[in-house]
Design goal:
This protein has a six-stranded antiparallel sheet with strand order 3-2-1-6-5-4. It has ten helices and ten strands. Helix 2 packs antiparallel against helix 5. It starts with 9 loop residues before the first helix and ends with a helix. Helix content is 43%, strand content 22%. 39% of the residues are buried.
């Protein structure tokens, strides 16, 4: 086993990392969604956002079928090697690589065979860690895969650089408009590359103002939180969803057709109905939803799809108030 060397700018690197006050912090949806997306997009066992501290690699976010530790020693880390370069670090078969074939992460759990890690830098400076994908089987990594991991890595870099900027809705703790738009753009890029269709759904709560007027703004906030939690429950982890503002929410689903989308909408409606019956808060959460499903072409962007879904939603809302 070959342990990673120490970068020449190690002192400055650690100062930057610790200034962010991100080490040993609580999980955050902005990072968890990225690792979940990476895991699903590449079909791997594990996706991790790691940060390389003085003597350890610590996992800010991890998506895995099996339980992983919160950290490992730096000397056995693949990510410690990845931060030494400027581009994606790829090991297609760890058993065939002299640096890793007897590494305990290869010979024992999680039995790493394939690894690809993008070094995360802030403002073109030191690499603080990686966004990486891991599998227990060897695999090839082609130029398209490289670009996709770079794209996700750039998103992670943006989130690290903008920890104080709002991409998360403070009330519901799901993405806000900015966060939704950024994540949706990358999902659409994946659909373009892989020839997949996508659905975008726009939800608008009906009779929301009377809830605030009659029951108070705290109850209105509660209704928004409940609605966001039902979105979490019904939609897949790889789906992108957010609160666009006020009582408006959006979801983007990859690799679905119109029929599948309708089934998910029905499942969502059943969950809302069940909540209303069980909660008995003196009001029902009501909503209108519109969606469009399309193959993603080069001239389609997230705003085009949102505008089309908005028209469908208002058509449904008009039918409901007649």
């Amino acid at each position: 086993m070959i342990s990673p060397t120490i970068p020449e700018d190690e002192k400055q690197r650690l100062e930057k990392l610790r200034a962010l006050k991100i080490l040993d912090s609580a999980p955050e949806e902005r990072f968890d969604r990225l690792t979940r997306m990476a895991k699903r997009m590449f079909g791997v066992d594990i996706s991790v956002l790691s940060l390389i501290d003085d003597g350890r690699q610590w996992f800010k976010s991890k998506a895995s079928e099996n339980e992983l530790p919160d950290e490992t020693t730096r000397e056995i880390s693949f990510c410690g090697h990845a931060i030494l370069g400027d581009d994606v670090f790829v090991i297609e078969d760890a058993l065939e690589d002299y640096r890793f074939k007897d590494n305990p992460l290869v010979t024992e759990h999680p039995n790493i065979r394939f690894y690809a890690g993008y070094p995360l830098k802030v403002n073109n400076g030191s690499a603080l860690g990686t966004l990486c994908i891991i599998d227990d089987k060897p695999r090839e990594f082609d130029p398209e895969d490289l670009q996709l991991l770079r794209d996700l890595g750039v998103m992670a870099e943006q989130e690290i650089a903008a920890l104080q900027l709002a991409t998360l809705d403070d009330l519901t703790l799901i993405s806000n408009r900015r966060g939704f738009t950024e994540l949706a753009k990358h999902s659409l890029n994946v659909c373009r590359r892989k020839g997949l269709s996508a659905s975008i759904l726009l939800f608008d709560l009906n009779k929301f103002k009377p809830i605030n007027d009659k029951f108070g703004h705290a109850e209105g906030d509660r209704a928004l939180i409940v609605f966001a939690n039902i979105l979490r429950k019904v939609f897949r982890e790889s789906d992108v969803f957010g609160r666009l503002g006020g009582d408006e929410f959006a979801v983007l689903m990859m690799d679905v057709d119109a029929e599948n989308t309708q089934r998910v909408i029905q499942r969502f409606n059943n969950e809302v109905t069940t909540y209303n019956q069980e909660a008995a808060r003196g009001y029902d959460i009501e909503y209108s939803v519109g969606f469009v499903n399309s193959m993603i072409e080069n001239n389609i962007d997230v705003n085009d799809l949102l505008a089309a879904a908005d028209k469908e939603m208002y058509a449904e809302k008009g039918n409901k108030v007649r």
